[in-house]
Specification:
Elements: H1 2-22, E1 29-31, E2 35-40, H2 46-58, E3 62-70, E4 76-84, E5 90-95, E6 104-109, E7 118-122
Antiparallel strand pairs: 1-2, 2-6, 3-4, 4-5, 6-7
Length: about 120
């Protein structure tokens, strides 16, 4: 019983810490009440992509990776993904040249008066 309690507390602490890290404005994922945005960069590793997929699922968005390629340092080099927001908005995109300067990914804006509520691929 004590081991379960310690494990639960550790998982809770990791969850809270990861939430604070995800609020960092330099992170490729931006979550707010009205907008979700993911930008894939060369700095992302496999575990980062798993976390992004899980975070999207927690927000009601299905993110599937069709292809992932990594460089010798484990950084994301190429990606092919499909995203479904389960509200009529879905799409896919792929890139064979991910860099830290690229703005490649997807967004879903839930504001009523927004000009573009959803997009995939190269983001402005």
């Amino acid at each position: 019983m004590e081991r379960i309690l310690k494990t639960s507390l550790l998982l809770l602490a990791l969850f809270l810490i990861s939430g604070f890290i995800y609020c960092d404005p330099n992170t490729p994922v931006r979550l707010s009440d009205n907008r979700v945005q993911v930008v894939f960069t060369r700095d992302l590793k496999f575990n980062d992509l798993v976390k992004i997929k899980l975070d999207m699922a927690d927000n009601g968005i299905t993110l599937d990776y069709k292809k992932l390629e990594f460089d010798e340092n484990g950084g994301l080099m190429a990606i092919d993904f499909k995203v479904d927001c389960h509200d009529g908005f879905s799409g896919s995109a792929s890139s064979n040249q991910i860099s830290n300067n690229s703005r490649f990914g997807f967004f879903r804006d839930y504001n009523d008066d927004v000009e573009s509520p959803f997009g995939t691929g190269n983001l402005e």
